[in-house]
Amino acid sequence: VGRRRLQDSFRSRFFRMGVQAPRRLLELAGQSLLKNEALAIAALEELPMELFPPLFTAVFTGRHSNILKAMVQAWPFRCLPLGALMKEQQPHQETFQAALDGLDVLLAQEVRPRRWKLQVLDLRKKVHQDFWTVWSGTRAGICSFLEPEAVQPMRKRRKVDGLRVGPKPPSAPVEVLVDLCLKEGTPDASLAYVIKKVKQGRGLVHLCCKRLKIFAVPMQNIKNILKMVQLDSIQDLEVNCTWNLSTLGQFAPYLGQMGSLRRLLLSHIRMSSHTTPAKEEQGVSQFTSQFLSLHHLRELYLDSISFLKDRLDQFLRCLKTPLETLSITNCLLSELDLTRLSQCPNISQLKHLDLSGVTLSCISPESLQVLIERTSATLQDLDLDECGIMDSQFTAILPALGRCSQLTILSFSGNPISMAVLENLLRHTIGLSKLNHVLYPAPLETYEVDYGTLHLGRLAYLHARLKQMLQELGRPNMVWFSANPCPYCGDRTFYDPEPIPCPCYLPA
């Protein structure tokens, strides 16, 4: 009886304070409650939902494992953003495991707790940053996270970053949401424990991943993890591996199951010298055919892909939706590739086009001109760095550039362009009201004989001349600056108009 009275006393104290209590009083009440573990667990059944986040934070920080397990089971919101709290608190591994154990206990119960609402355990550290700080005791901050009926006189359902409370069928699985980065080194103890729980979850725990990065990891390890992941949850995939075509073929079936994928980056895929042409063609077809299943793909990045020459069309034919970003960098392309690219129906809505490091010096400018014209209504960012484009080719695309009404950034450093062509470019683009940054190469006239040493005095003079033209033509705020590789380390050195020294120039 005495314990019941004490428990009722705590409950009534919390209810009296409600959401309008000063933050310090809430903290003191929480500290008082945590002094009695059994009482704290018993009080969760009637604890006002707005007090769960501050109390959970205190429990998590104080490593009260048993209370933490109970709070996970009684969590009154649709989503528990544990990852954001872990980023701030740097938790002990046992504390993290206690939270997952609470989920395990919850799912094992035939009769779920009355207040059970949890659908998503979010372990990502870069989302829901404001959830744990918004509970400052002010009604305005708290109301956005409550059930509509819990805060009067609100009449409409409100939703904040996926954290709205809602009904949940008892048999539905709980999603554990992570961002995965697979790389060599010490195994991630937290990830290993999550996977263990997924295996033990009898289908009631779904491991979901919106962002997946893969570095140099044995393919078998990748397969073992991907078998545990709901592949249709992946929206952003980066593959930064020195794979050959055969290894890429092993990965292809997994890619085809990522139906929600919006962004794909593929880097450093090479062909084996022992692969026959027939096997090579089979491997390329096996991989590109997976794009037929990617109905939401909007961003495609292909970097250092050795088999792309004369095969770009195989990628383009399998695209199911218009792209917003296309980046093909440090690859060999043929004139046929560029022609097919300019004819592709799925590039008409491009906002970002990056062809840096693709040698275009031996390709006629007509295909590039058509490509820019096809995207002129939507293109915002164009990168042609280190393409080997010379005066005649650049002059040919100037009219098309002048029609890119949405262009905001133009970059073409590292190309052998003369001052006369730069001035011509300025005149063609001066009417583009949204163009505010142009990154250009040091003109040929700023070098000593035969494209040798850069003459900084000449560069400063020509840069000042371009600035004067901008002033005279009414665009003084348009930023033109130059960049060229550092002769020592290869990194860019910027000039505006004086050089911004590369770190290798600076004294130790």
TrEMBL record:
GO cellular component, one term: Cul2-RING ubiquitin ligase complex
GO MF terms held by the record: ubiquitin-like ligase-substrate adaptor activity
InterPro entries reported for this sequence: LRR_dom_sf (IPR032675), LRRC14/PRAME (IPR050694), PRAME (IPR026271)
Organism superkingdom: Eukaryota
Record's keyword annotation contains Repeat: yes
A GO BP annotation: negative regulation of apoptotic process
UniProt entry keywords in alphabetical sequence: Leucine-rich repeat, Repeat
Protein family: Belongs to the PRAME family.
PANTHER family in alphabetical order: MELANOMA ANTIGEN PREFERENTIALLY EXPRESSED IN TUMORS, SIMILAR TO PREFERENTIALLY EXPRESSED ANTIGEN IN MELANOMA-LIKE 3
Name recorded for this polypeptide: PRAME nuclear receptor transcriptional regulator
Annotated source species: Equus caballus
Gene: PRAME
